[in-house]
Amino acid sequence: MPGDGVRRVVIAGGGTAGWMTASYLKAAFGERVDVTLVESAKVGTIGVGEATFSTVRHFFDYLGLVESEWMPECNATYKLGIRFENWREAGHHFYHPFERLRVVDGFPLTDWWLAGGPSSRFDADCFVIPALCEALSSPRHLDGRLFESDLIEGSGRVYRTTLAEQTTQFPYAYHLDAALLAEYLTRYATRRGARRVVDDITNVSLDQRGWIEHIDTREHGPITGDLFIDCTGFRGLLINGAMDMPFESYQDSLPNDRAVALRVPAAGRHSDMRPCTTATAQEAGWIWTIPLFGRNGTGYVYAGDYCTPDQAEKTLREFVGPAADDAEANHIRMRIGRNRESWYHNCVAIGLASGFVEPLESTGIFFIQHAIEQLVKHFPGADWDPAVRRSYNNTVARCMDGVREFLVLHYKGAKRADNDYWRDAKTRVIPDGLAERLEQWQTKLPDTESVFPYYHGFEPYSYVCMLLGLGGIPVRPPQAVRQMPERRTLDEFAFIRRQGAELVASLPSQRDYLASLRGSV
Ligand code: FAD
Fold it and tell me: Where are the beta strands (DSSP E) in 43-125?
């Protein structure tokens, strides 16, 4: 191995994780790192995973990709947040918007709202994005200007950003066709010198220390490297299969372990292209609706202990209606949890091979992006310093543990308790630390001091939105806002209403904006 560090990287698996990793490494290191990616033509990719969250823009920025180029290629749409339906009670909905929470006189607007908001809808009172979602608006004007351009894009600087620089909430993410994204990134990475091998990995050879020496393939023989990245999905062929890394399940606190998915052509009432993901609570889980350009991705995530695959498929088909009649159902078993260590010796697992919570809040691609960024920040030198590996493992594990907590809050906090599934959600084991935090949040809404203390992608305002929207945990405003004059906040609530209405009137629909983007490529 050359003295200056790792040069030969072998990636096993070519799903979203594999190709995102190959592309990012090429963008970061160029010719200085050789990348070989092996993917099977027989073992398919997971085939779902179509909603992202707002940090993903840093990934595209880093690769130097612009929306007008990659969005049409991936049938992508905008996602301004998540609309939760029926989590509190039938017929109720609220949004978790990707929007900065405003602060008035030192207190977040949601504190003021709790003390006496103008309506029963915290989301519509405190944010403009719910209005845009309901009006099916694009977050960009036809000339490309972002609706929040004064906040985010005023500087005019172009630079390569990473998660670390995301200091304010960016107002949108994307929905995208994951298979098209993988194809797009295949072209990106191979054009920059990544070698693509289409073959089956038949064996993983370890040396006497237990490090990976090479992987064997059916037709291309052994493939050697310095660093091996396991992107083989839930099977974790290298990290769990060959290296025996224990997998720590989250299932005691997050019981959903199955999903059934359908790809539905967009027509009639299915062609709305609402600029948000919809998560509709069901008897034993929830159904996602993800509008892409030309079709909708939809699926029922459920707990196998409460619902059979047949029941789940029936529920999903009834939910979608006749538009799904010709669509084939994709039944998936999910491995919920994470590896005890995602980097072991010279093997790093990324994507589903590393860990997964469940699709709620769309964190799969975020975990991939986070892991790749951290791998580059912790890239191993020739000495394979164990301290570097430890730091990487801690960062990646905490990120997933933090998301686990946030998702547990969704079930624990949902007011709905109309059957065993939802009642059990209130008494299930919760991660260490969350019980204390939940207690604290009842008297003081979550802030930076009181949420999971390590980076996990979610900001305190997201916790606030979930607590206020789910409605199952009583919360109250700080005493101070009850004693302060409320005139300024009333102005702010009125301003938000006005701003929302003006934006709805001036922004094009997402359909028109995306069509114009397609016309311009
Ligand atoms: P896979 O897609 O499973 O890819 C595995 C790769 O390994 C394939 O290329 C396969 O050919 C290869 N392979 C396996 N065995 C071999 C072998 N022996 N030889 C050679 N190659 C091999 N994430 C989000 O961000 N948003 C979402 O909305 C979202 N929804 C989801 C819904 C569900 C139901 C599930 C299960 C996941 C969802 N995810 C979501 C997660 C997301 O799908 C994954 O993070 C993403 O697709 C990455 O998958 P992957 O590349 O790790 O694995």
Answer: 77-79, 81-85, 93-97, 103-104, 107-108
**Cα-based distances in Å from 110 to 126, 468, 482:** 7, 9, 13
Q: Which residue has the tokens 């630079």?
A: 159
Nearest to residue 286, comparing CAs of 411, 467, 412?
Answer: 411
Contact 7, 32 (CB under 8 A): yes
Q: Which amino acid is at 103?
A: V
What is the DSSP track for 127-188? Answer: -SHHHHHHTTB-SB-TTS-BTTHHHHTTT-------GGG--S--S-EEE--HHHHHHHHHHH
Question: Is the distance from the beta carbon of residue 51 to the nearest atom of ligand 1 less than 6 Å?
Answer: yes
Give 379-435 pLDDT, tens digit per residue. 999 999 999 999 999 999 999 999 999 999 999 999 999 999 999 999 999 998 999
Let me know: does 168 contact 162? Beta carbons within 8 Å. no
At 107-152, the pLDDT tens digits run 899 999 999 999 999 999 999 999 999 999 999 999 999 987 644 4
Q: Which residues contact 21 (CB under 8 A, 6 or more apart)?
A: 11, 229, 231, 350, 368, 372, 375
Query: What is the rounded distance in angstroms from the CA atom of residue 20 to the CA atom of residue 505?
Result: 38
- Contacts of residue 478, Cβ cutoff 8 Å, sequence gap at least 6: 107, 111, 444
CA of residue 46 to ligand 1 center, whole Å: 4
Task: Give the global pTM.
Answer: 0.95
- Gap between the Cα atoms of 227 and 249, Å rounded: 26
Q: Is 452 helix (H, G, I), strand (E, B) or coil?
A: coil
Side chain identity at 63, as an amino acid letter?
L
Atom of ligand 1 nearest to the CA of 299: 34
79 a catalytic residue: yes
Category of 321 on φ-ψ map: left (φ > 0), alpha (ψ -120 to 50) or beta: left
Two structure tokens written together for 436: 């204390």
Indicate whether this complex's ipTM tops 0.90. yes
Distance (Å, whole) CA 443 – CA 318: 41
Residue 24 Cα, ligand 1 centroid: separation in angstroms?
Answer: 17
Question: How many Å apart are CA 515 and CA 82, to the nearest integer?
Answer: 23
Tens of pLDDT, residue by residue over 15-37, are: 999 999 999 999 999 999 999 99
| Cα separation, 90 vs 63, whole angstroms | 43
Could you tell me if the CB of 52 is within 6 A of ligand 1?
yes
Contacts of 43 (CB under 8 A, 6+ apart): 200
End-to-end CA distance of the chain: 44
DSSP string, 209-246: TS-EEEEEETTTEEEE-SEEEE--GGG-IIIIIIT---
